[in-house]
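dumping this here so i dont lose it
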């Protein structure tokens, strides 16, 4: 890592890197710690604060409902007295002078008392100002009689009761009404008792003091709500019973609607609540953050040592040991971690890339060397055969020319003429002389042909010897290399025909990837694996299995004191008959209908044998699947030991 200053490039010292790393770790830790507290802990404080604000508002509403309940209890007690029933009937002045005095309003904290008969006529009624205690009039409570539709009238049952908020011209009022009956909970309804109490500023202040909040109440009907408060009504109607608004960092405003006796929204209530919980939460967050930063400062040194060891020292040590091991070994192998994104990771990836190229080059050189040697041997043999064929062809051409010149047809004509018997004695003598001379010539030609055929036979014997020598060379040990099983298995799977690959599922167990490398020829092993996979896939297709599966696994087995990699290919195909298990690797044997069958497994068996390995098959019978086992040496030492035991010379 370097720092650019102008046009010059200065390398950054390790000390500077460490300081920057410490600063970055502490800063990131502090930022994450504060962010976690701010986004996860503080919202819980705020949510709790909102819940507490709603509880305070519920207390205010509860106190107000208790006031209404007390009014309802008062009406119940009054209506059960027989005196009020008699007063409704005879309107006696004695009841007024004893029970309906001004002290009655003060003692019960009432502003309204109305006694109506069954005809809704006001038998007695007064409304008193809560401040001056003088009588006043309200349009909602006329002095003569109340309308039949009045919401506080119309009780049809002795236990009927109406209580709640009632909006008047002057101010909201808490009211309660019950039917007046002749005796306790019995008798006929002779009228209605209505009592009420104005929800005055003093009453509101008393509610606020009991709930320890600042309380405001507005009547919705008379449009006394300020414009900035009207938005709260929309939120309450649209969302929930309460609406909490953050007025400032120190005050929460909680709103709710209180219905009237008809159930319609009547009062908008607002409680201003100090935000003590948030203040305590912020103080707690600050203390927690400072404590966390101090703790991080104490632990960062330990973390730094661990990071330096893991990020710098350990990777460089692994890289060094890996390079030294490659230098001491004759084999180029991979195995470095390349997932890092820093300079060490770049170095490891570049080195790994170089090693991969060297492995590929080594592999190609082995194959080219092998094929080049075979080609050179074949070229030499062909040259020798060509040299041997040249005189043999010359002898054969000479014999063919002399055989064509032999007077065979003339001899046949002479013999036919002698057999005829019509020739003269002189002619017969001439023909006999010609046949004798020709016979001597043919005998000489036969002797010459025999001599030349003997020479051709000798030359053919030489060619046959050359071919035998070539056959010996062709059976030489294949060039060995370090081969990873997982790479060969995946390459062999890629060579499967698509119609077979799509018809089955193949499971490669982790043991294949973790298996030790084997010493063999990768191309030849690839052909063996592909041949076995094709046989297994065709067996599954032939069985008609809906869930055809091939499982490939590996393990380490000890064979004759040597570690061998044991690869297994198991399938759930048609299986192998018990009587066929010992013949499936023989030349020409096959259970397929195809005339070309049987050569694949025979070739696999010979090839694995040349690799110093072993192949065999197991099956529990028809339609029970099969398993092919291949054992291969794991190191060059094992190969050399096997070569010595088998007397094979590489």
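and the seq i came up w/
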């Amino acid at each position: 890592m370097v720092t650019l200053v102008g046009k010059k490039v200065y390398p950054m010292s390790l000390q500077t890197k460490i300081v920057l790393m410490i600063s970055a770790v502490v800063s990131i830790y502090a930022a994450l710690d504060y962010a976690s507290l701010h986004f996860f802990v503080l919202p819980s404080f705020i949510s709790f604060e909102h819940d507490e604000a709603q509880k305070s508002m519920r207390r205010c509403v509860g106190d107000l409902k208790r006031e209404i309940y007390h009014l309802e209890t008062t009406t119940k007690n009054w209506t059960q007295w027989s005196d009020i029933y008699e007063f409704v009937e005879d309107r006696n002045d004695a009841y007024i002078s004893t029970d309906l005095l001004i002290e009655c309003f003060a003692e019960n904290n009432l502003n309204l008392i109305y006694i109506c008969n069954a005809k809704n006529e006001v038998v007695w009624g007064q409304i008193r100002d809560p401040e001056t205690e003088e009588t006043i009039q309200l349009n909602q409570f006329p002095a003569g009689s109340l309308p039949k539709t009045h919401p506080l009238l119309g009780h049809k049952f002795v236990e009927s009761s109406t209580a709640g908020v009632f909006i008047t011209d002057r101010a909201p009022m808490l009211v309660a009404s019950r039917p007046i009956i002749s005796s306790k909970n019995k008798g006929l309804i002779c009228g209605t008792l209505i009592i009420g109490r104005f929800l005055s500023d003093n009453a509101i202040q008393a509610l606020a003091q009991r709930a320890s909040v600042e309380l405001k109440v507005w009547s919705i009907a008379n449009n006394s709500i300020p414009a900035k408060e009207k938005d709260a009504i929309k939120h309450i109607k649209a969302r929930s019973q309460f609406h909490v608004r953050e007025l400032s960092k120190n005050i929460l405003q909680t709103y709710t609607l209180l219905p009237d006796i008809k159930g319609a929204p009547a009062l908008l209530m607002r409680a201003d609540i100090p935000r003590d919980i948030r203040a305590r939460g912020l103080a707690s967050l600050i203390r927690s953050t400072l404590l966390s930063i101090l703790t991080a400062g104490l632990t960062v040194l330990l973390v730094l040592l661990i990071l330096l060891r893991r990020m710098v020292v350990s990777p460089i040590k692994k890289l060094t040991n890996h390079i030294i091991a490659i230098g001491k070994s004759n084999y180029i192998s991979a195995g470095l971690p390349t997932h890092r994104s820093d300079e060490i990771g770049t170095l490891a990836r570049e080195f790994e890339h170089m090693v991969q190229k060297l492995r590929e080059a080594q592999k190609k050189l082995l194959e080219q060397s092998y094929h080049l040697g075979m080609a050179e041997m074949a070229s030499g043999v062909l040259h020798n055969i060509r040299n041997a064929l040249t005189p043999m062809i010359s002898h054969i051409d000479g014999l063919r020319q002399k055989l064509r010149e032999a007077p065979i047809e003339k001899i046949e004509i002479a013999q036919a003429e002698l057999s005829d018997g019509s020739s003269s004695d002189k002619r017969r003598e001439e023909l006999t002389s010609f046949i004798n001379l020709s016979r001597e010539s043919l005998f000489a030609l036969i002797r010459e042909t025999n001599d030349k055929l003997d020479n051709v036979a000798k030359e053919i014997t030489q060619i046959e010897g050359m071919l035998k020598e070539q056959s010996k060379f062709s059976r030489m040990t294949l060039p060995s290399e370090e081969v990873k099983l997982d790479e060969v298995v995946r390459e062999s799977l890629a060579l499967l025909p698509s119609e077979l690959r799509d018809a089955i599922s193949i499971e490669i167990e982790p043991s294949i990837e973790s298996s030790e490398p084997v010493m063999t020829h990768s191309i030849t092993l690839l052909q063996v694996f592909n041949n076995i996979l094709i046989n297994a896939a065709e067996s599954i297709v032939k069985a008609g299995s809906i869930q055809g599966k091939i499982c490939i696994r590996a393990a380490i087995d000890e064979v004759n004191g040597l570690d061998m990699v044991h690869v297994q290919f198991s399938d759930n195909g048609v299986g192998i008959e018990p009587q066929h298990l010992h013949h499936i690797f023989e030349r020409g044997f096959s259970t397929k209908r195809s005339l070309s069958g049987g050569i694949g497994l025979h070739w696999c068996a010979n090839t694995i044998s040349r690799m110093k390995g072993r192949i065999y098959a197991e099956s529990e019978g028809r339609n029970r699947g099969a398993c092919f086992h291949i054992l291969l040496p794991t190191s060059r030492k094992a190969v050399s030991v096997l070569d010595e035991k088998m007397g094979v010379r590489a």
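Residues 80-203 form a domain with the Beta-Lactamase fold (CATH 3.30.450.20).
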